[in-house]
Design a protein that fits this description.
The chain is built from two helices and no strands.
Length: about 70
């Protein structure tokens, strides 16, 4: 019976830890989704791009469609 109780206690602690992880994830995603778009990182900072720093980052791009290169 003690082993079952300790198992349930471990599962409860894991669920609380998971809850805080999920709340942090939701807050990070919400903050980045509603942020204003920024210029994309240039080649000089590509080595510093990580999922933690650039996940769900809105970027602003512009360009010209090259119709001659379409096939």
């Amino acid at each position: 019976m003690l082993l079952v109780f300790l198992g349930f206690l471990a599962l409860g602690a894991w669920q609380v830890k998971r809850l805080f992880w999920k709340l942090d994830l939701i807050e990070r995603v919400d903050r980045r989704v509603h942020a204003a778009p920024v210029a994309p990182p240039g080649p000089d900072v590509w080595s510093n791009v990580t999922a933690d720093s650039h996940e769900y980052l809105h970027v602003r791009l512009s360009g010209t469609f090259l119709y001659a290169k379409n096939f």
